[in-house]
Amino acid sequence: MSKPRVLSGIQPTNGSFHLGNYLGAVKQWVELQESHDAFYCVVDLHALTSSPDPKELRQNTLVSVAQLLALGVDPEHCTLFIQSHVAEHNQLGWVMECLTGFGEASRMTQFKDKSQKIENDRIGVGVFTYPMLMAADILLYQADQVPVGEDQRQHIELTRDLATRFNSQYGKTFRIPEGYILKEGAKIYDLQDPTSKMSKSAESASGLIELLDAPEINTKKIKSAVTDTGREVRFDVAQKPGISNLLTIYSTLSGRSVAEIENEFDGKGYGDFKGAVAEVVVEYLRPVRTKTLELLGDPGHLNAILRVGADKASAVASKTLSDVYERIGLLARG
Ligand code: TRP
C-alpha cells in the first residue's frame, strides 16, 4: 500500500516565521512527512499578489526554506520545492480559471475581505484568481489531503468543486482532495491582542514571537504580554484570553498538559508564570535559529536541495498536466 499523499503550501513570509506559523502548520508538516507522501511548497507566486519588493521576495523565499529545514522538514522524507520552479502550476492555474464561475470566485471570503480593504483600481486580478492557482497547486499532485488552517477551508471546497466538475466534464483526471484542517489546539494568538490570531499583519510586532528573533527580544515580548485581571493561572479563553494563550504556548512546546501547568503555578503569580513561558520558548527556538542561520550561510546547499525538490515535483506535475491538456482538447506539440 502506498502512503496517502499530502500537499501544502506556505507563503514566503517577510523575515521570520512566527510561532503561530510553526505550531499551526509547520509542526504538523513535520509529523505528516513520516506517515504520508508529502509535497510541500513555498508559494512565491501567491506572494506576488501583494507586490513585494523583488529583492525581499527572493531573500524571503530562501529564508523560508531555511526555516522549514531547521524546523524539521526533511527533504529525504518529503518533496520540498518552490512553486515558481514548476511551471505547471501556472499552466493548470489557467485551466482552473476557465473552469471557475465569476460569481463563484467572487464569493471567496478572503477575496471579499481583501477587496473591501483596497480600492478597485489598486487591487490586482491575482487576488481574485488566487484560489484557482491554489487549486492547481493541489490537483497537480493528486493529493489525498491538504493540511491547512481553518481560514483556507473555503479554498479547499472550491478545489474539490473544480476537480469534481473537471472529472465529470472531461473524464476522471483528478483525485478529489480532502481538507486536513490543522488541529485547533495549536491556535496561537497575538501576545498584545490575545483575541486575534498571531499574524504578520498585526499592527505591531510586539505581539509576535518570531523564530529568528534574538532570545532576549522574545523573552521581553513574553514578559510584556497582555494578561488579564486576576492572578490565577487558569485556562479560560473567555475570561482570560491572555493567560490561556500563554498556557497553550507553554503546553504545546513543553508537551505537558495544561492541567499540569495550572497545578504547577497554583498560588504563584503571573510574573513567575511568564518567566517560565519565556524560558520554554527561548530554549525551544534557540536551536532552530542557530540552524537557520547556519543554512543561510550556504546558499549553494539550499539551492541544491531545491533543485532536487523541483525535479521530483515536476515529474508528477508534468504527468497530470499532460493528461489535462489532452482531455480538454489542446493539440499536442508534435
Ligand atoms: N493559501 C494558503 C495560505 O495562505 C497557501 C497555499 C497556496 C496553499 N497554495 C496552497 C496551502 C496549496 C495548501 C495547498 O495559507
Produce the secondary structure layout.
Layout: E1 5-10, H1 19-35, E2 37-42, H2 44-47, H3 54-70, E3 78-82, H4 88-99, H5 102-106, H6 109-117, H7 125-139, E4 145-148, H8 153-170, E5 178-181, H9 215-223, H10 241-254, H11 258-264, H12 270-296, H13 299-328
Parallel strand pairs: 1-2, 2-3, 4-5
Bound molecules: tryptophan.
Residues 7-9, 11, 43, 46, 134, 137-138, 146, 148, 152 line the site of tryptophan.
Features:
binds tryptophan, 334 residues, three-stranded parallel β-sheet, two-stranded parallel sheet, mainly alpha, 13 helices
Task: Please write the string of helix (H) and strand (E) elements.
Answer: EHEHHEHHHHEHEHHHHH
- Shape designation: globular
| Unreliable sequence segments | none
Residue fraction in strands: 5-15%
Q: Bound small molecules, which ones?
A: tryptophan
Q: What is the CA–CA distance across the termini?
A: 37 Å
Please work out how many helical segments DSSP would assign. 13
Q: What does this molecule look like?
A:
By secondary structure, the protein is mostly helical. 55% of the residues lie in helices and 7% in strands. The protein is built from 13 helices and five strands. It has helices spanning 19-35, 44-47, 54-70, 88-99, 102-106, 109-117, 125-139, 153-170, 215-223, 241-254, 258-264, 270-296, 299-328; strands spanning 5-10, 37-42, 78-82, 145-148, 178-181. It has a three-stranded parallel β-sheet. The protein has a two-stranded parallel ribbon with strand order 4-5. Helix 1 links the parallel strand 1 and strand 2. Helix 3 (54-70) crosses helix 12 (270-296), helix 7 (125-139) packs across helix 8 and helix 10 (241-254) packs across helix 12. The longest helix is centred in the C-terminal third of the chain and has 30 residues, at 299-328. The radius of gyration is 21 Å and the shape is globular. Tryptophan (TRP) binds next to strand 1, helix 7 and strand 4.
